[in-house]
Amino acid sequence: MTLHVSTAIFPVAGLGTRFLPATKATPKELLPVLDTPLIQYAVDEARTAGIERMVFVSHPSKRAIERHVMEDARLTRELEARGKQEVADALSDAALCPVEDDVRFVMQTEPKGLGHAVLCAKDHVLDGPVAVILPDDLILGPVGCLSEMISAYNARKVGHLVATMEVSEDRVHRYGVLSVTGKDGAIVLADGMVEKPKPQDAPSRQAVVGRYILDETIFDALDTQKPGAGGEIQLTDAIARGASTLGLGGFQFSGTRFDCGSKAGMLEATLELAMDDPDCLAVLKARGLVDDTASFAA
Hints:
Blueprint: E1 7-11, E2 32-33, E3 36-37, H1 38-48, E4 53-58, H2 63-69, H3 73-81, H4 85-94, E5 102-107, H5 114-120, E6 130-133, E7 137-140, H6 145-153, E8 160-166, E9 176-184, E10 187-195, E11 206-214, H7 218-223, H8 235-241, H9 243-246, E12 248-252, E13 256-259, H10 263-274, H11 278-286
Parallel strand pairs: 1-4, 1-6, 4-5, 8-12
Antiparallel strand pairs: 2-3, 6-11, 7-13, 8-11, 9-10, 9-11, 10-12
Helix pairs in contact: 3-4, 5-8
């Protein structure tokens, strides 16, 4: 039976310590990749995938996220009055409308882990499986990662579906890693996962990245989940507990993932998008960073 994925949870309460001092006053989710904040990419991906309700699990110090994602009627009027109709229209199209869009903001006041952040959204989700999007993980491609995952999930071969990519052995300690049992098309079947294992203990090199579609029973599992790595409530631990009864799969998405929770990943993503902008490409060529024959995608 096909179950509609109606809700997306955005855990955005983290303090972004790896980007200090830039994130002292600006949430990391509002840091731009070229000219678009990370959170905007995540919202656009959810919209394209047909998500009906968006739940942002934030922190009281990060009210700027709400100001960005929600429509600002006063700013729109000011831009229109100044004759900047095109800019006003673009901002309005990108923003979420408090009347037409179903949006909730809840607070995670203590840093208790990703699992706890998802649990904070429990009372605000619609019935059925839920999606979780980590804006730090920017995944670019012709088709949105969440759209691909929902299409695959509709076959109901597994109860929990997580986005995965193969990483080198020396990087498995940075991720949750699947215990692989087989493969079915783009889905890697698994009987569990391990959070940030040592290379010699990793069950595979299939690493979990920031997109999830989770059976609604995940909230019951998180309610009773004991702290794991780092003393936090780990989402991967709760997912692994349901693997034997619900089924667990890793979805091998077609896009390119950038770890924008790191400075190197943010730079890599920025350069990737700069290649598609003629003005930025000209700067890269002038500095000898790309070959003179390189061209942007029109």
